[in-house]
């Protein structure tokens, strides 16, 4: 018997059951092998008197004994598995678990025997507390660990953070990669962007579902995952970990796992915010509710602000708060009301500020709401409202009959204070960028070109962040026809994108994405100079090179086909000219 055979019979000897080794020994030391085999069959066969007369009948039909015993064995195993599952549900709790523990004690020595293993695993799966010793044995054996049910693994993980971390880590990497793939996707559209999927759809994603299953109802494991997410967020500043924090909680909420939802102090806040994200707007009723949660943070419980800030730092939350802020500002223009007189607007800013301050708060472990700068409310937001007014005025002017003085030009300068705010104030910068996305979506070329220069230098380079550039490239497809104009392209590419391409690989990728989508609209002379400017360097990553090659291929296909050959090839004998097939 080779090593495979050995595992086939693993543990039988301990139970006093004869195995292949015993038969081998018997046959080696006997004088009459046939008699020895018969005796071995009688001693170890199915001990049913009625069966003895029936077995020869099977022999007549040429059915091997192995096949018969195998089918009996499979049948019995199925019955036993059903019985184990039934025991786990019947009688008093202590009694049923006592029965299962006894069964585990008797069968555990056979856990490595492939044919019996499912039964042992099934018993363990139904035990809320598998004996420590057995868990250690399972953990020490790679194959057993792999084969056991998630219910058993949870019991192992909850006391082995490192092992649990090894299981969770590849899932978190996959999650971040999936998010980045969406942001850099070659499909550029204003209708389907990063923020299009509803929260419920996002929670059906593979990673969230797997993590939800791994956690089950185990609060300890849930806390461990949150700890991993906090640590990774601190280490990388990657905001997608904040999204996962919220998605995981809401996934457990969908499954009504009260054991966890009831102990997570962020549950109701996240639930309410989730409804706002679904609508992409914070309405007055929900605003009151969210404010209630923030105002209700009691003394001594300020640490919850760290968790709430992480929930609010989720890009989907920031997107909803920023879009709502822009809508509020437009409403205020119509109502002749100043930002400081709108409690709803102030609440949105308070939440934006808390979300944007998440990293600092968790890093410093100082749990208090960041102070809002008065100038943001008294100067910056009124300035944005004045831009809205400029647009209204300009539109009205265009409709008035023009007198001798000629048409009124669109204001081309931007207040210095606006640029300064975008450089120095994080919340102002976020709102300013969303205002620029808003005017681009409205196809307001004048306003876009007016404000674009302010984006070259922004707070912590926010204007060159992937989420903003993903949304901007999507919205720019609405201004597709403007790309034929030299002036527009120079402002957009030379004045903005190309200022950062060489130092920021991600910007290089986004520009190439945009050109792959809109190259046919760009003025040919401009396209040539862009193609030169965007050529990858030795330091460029694979993604940039790949995109550049795709763009080059597309541009090659657009070039007019070479003129047909008319000259006779210079050869001794004149040959008839053969026209080249025109490329299709």
TrEMBL record:
InterPro entries: COBRA1. Residues 558-584 are annotated as: Disordered. GO terms for cellular component: NELF complex. Pfam families: COBRA1. Signal peptide: none annotated. GO terms for biological process: negative regulation of transcription elongation by RNA polymerase II. This is NELFB factor.
């Amino acid at each position: 018997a080779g090593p495979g055979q050995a595992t086939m019979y693993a543990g039988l000897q301990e139970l006093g059951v004869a195995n292949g080794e015993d038969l081998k020994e018997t046959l080696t030391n006997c004088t009459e092998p046939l008699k020895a085999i018969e005796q071995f069959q009688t001693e170890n066969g199915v001990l049913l008197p009625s069966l003895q007369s029936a077995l020869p009948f099977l022999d007549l039909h040429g059915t091997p004994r192995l096949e018969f015993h195998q089918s009996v064995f499979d049948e019995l195993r199925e019955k036993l598995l059903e019985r184990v599952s039934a025991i786990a549900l019947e009688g008093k709790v202590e009694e049923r678990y006592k029965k299962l523990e006894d069964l585990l004690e008797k069968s555990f020595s056979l856990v490595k025997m492939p044919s019996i293993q499912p039964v042992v695993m099934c018993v363990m799966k139904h035990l809320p507390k598998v004996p420590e010793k057995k868990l250690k044995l399972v953990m020490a054996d790679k194959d057993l660990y792999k084969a056991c049910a998630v219910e058993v693994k949870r019991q192992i993980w909850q006391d082995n953070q490192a092992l649990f971390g090894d299981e969770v880590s590849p899932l978190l990497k996959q999650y971040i990669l999936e998010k980045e793939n969406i942001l850099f996707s070659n499909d550029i559209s204003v209708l389907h962007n990063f923020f299009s999927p509803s929260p419920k759809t996002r929670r059906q994603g593979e990673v969230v579902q797997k993590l939800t299953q791994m956690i089950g109802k185990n609060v300890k494991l849930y806390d461990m995952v949150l700890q991993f997410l906090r640590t990774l967020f601190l280490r990388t500043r990657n905001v997608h970990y904040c999204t996962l924090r919220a998605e995981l909680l809401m996934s457990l909420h969908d499954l009504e796992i009260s054991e966890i939802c009831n102990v997570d102090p962020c549950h109701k806040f996240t639930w309410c915010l989730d409804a706002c994200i679904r609508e992409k707007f914070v309405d007055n009723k929900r605003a009151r509710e969210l404010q209630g949660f923030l105002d209700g943070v009691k003394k001594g419980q300020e640490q919850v602000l760290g968790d709430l800030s992480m929930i609010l730092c989720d890009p989907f939350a920031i997107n909803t708060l920023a879009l709502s802020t822009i809508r509020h500002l437009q409403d205020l223009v119509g109502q002749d009301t100043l930002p400081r007189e709108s409690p709803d607007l102030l609440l949105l800013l308070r939440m934006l500020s808390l979300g944007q301050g998440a990293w600092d708060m968790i890093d410093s472990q100082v749990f208090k709401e960041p102070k809002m700068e008065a100038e943001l409310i008294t100067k910056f937001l009124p300035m944005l409202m004045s831009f809205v007014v400029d647009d209204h005025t300009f539109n009205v002017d265009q409709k008035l009959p023009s007198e001798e003085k000629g048409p009124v030009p669109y204001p081309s300068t931007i207040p210095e204070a606006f640029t300064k705010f975008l450089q120095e104030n994080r919340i102002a910068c976020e709102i300013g960028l969303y205002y620029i996305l808003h005017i681009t979506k409205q196809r307001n070329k004048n306003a876009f070109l007016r404000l674009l220069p302010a984006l070259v230098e922004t707070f912590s380079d926010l204007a060159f962040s992937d989420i903003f550039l993903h949304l901007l490239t999507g919205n720019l497809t609405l201004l597709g026809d403007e790309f034929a104009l030299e002036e527009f392209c120079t402002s957009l590419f030379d004045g903005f994108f190309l200022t950062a391409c060489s130092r920021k690989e991600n910007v290089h990728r986004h520009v190439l994405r945009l050109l792959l989508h809109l190259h046919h609209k760009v003025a040919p002379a401009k396209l040539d100079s862009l193609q030169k400017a965007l050529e990858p360097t030795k330091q460029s990553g694979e993604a940039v090179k790949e995109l550049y090659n795709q763009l080059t291929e597309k541009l090659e296909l657009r070039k007019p086909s070479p003129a047909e050959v008319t000259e006779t090839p210079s050869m001794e004998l004149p040959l008839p000219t053969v026209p080249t097939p025109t490329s299709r």
